[in-house]
Amino acid sequence: MSVRISSFIREAYVVSLRDLRRFWQNIYWLAGQVAMNIADLVIFGLIFRSVVNPQLIPDYIRFITPGVSCLSIFISAFTIGREVGVELRREVTHYLVSLPISRSALVAGRILGGVLRGFIYQSGSIILAVLIMGFPTTEKWV
């Protein structure tokens, strides 16, 4: 039983490493996405700061930062899903299914790889949000 579990974990680890290697091949895309999040924050902050009532929202940049962070979570998830769709069209999935690993290990590895990629992508947005708003507390972020 423990041999089967260790085999499952090893197979899922190999699949997740494949995803992470492919992720690092697109480093310019990652840099572009982080730059886009910063641009969203700056552009919307500058444009709408004078539109909102400062008595209700005294610091629009701090107000919009959690929204931009949520937007980057969506973009990260959407991009990973889009890549899975591209792999389906290119029939890469047929190759992955033909490998000598179980389908459950394949799925677990893809999920683990997607979660790790999402965390890596989100790290820039989270660091930016912490720099702007401080460490999260219920008074600062809610």
Short description:
The chain has 142 residues and is mainly alpha-helical.
Structural account:
The chain has helices spanning 2-25, 27-48, 60-89, 92-98, 103-133, 138-141. It contains six helices and no strands. With 142 residues, the chain is mainly α. It has one domain.
Give keywords.
142 residues, mainly alpha, 6 helices, elongated
Oligomer state equals: single chain
Count of DSSP strands: 0
> What proportion strand?
under 5%
Shape: elongated
Summed up, the helix count is 6
Largest sheet: none
Q: pLDDT under 50 segments (min length 5)?
A: none
For the terminal residues, how far apart are their CA atoms? Answer: 46 Å
Helix/strand/pairing class, anyone? mainly alpha
SSE diagram, text form:
Layout: H1 2-25, H2 27-48, H3 60-89, H4 92-98, H5 103-133, H6 138-141
Helix pairs in contact: 1-5, 2-3, 2-5, 3-5
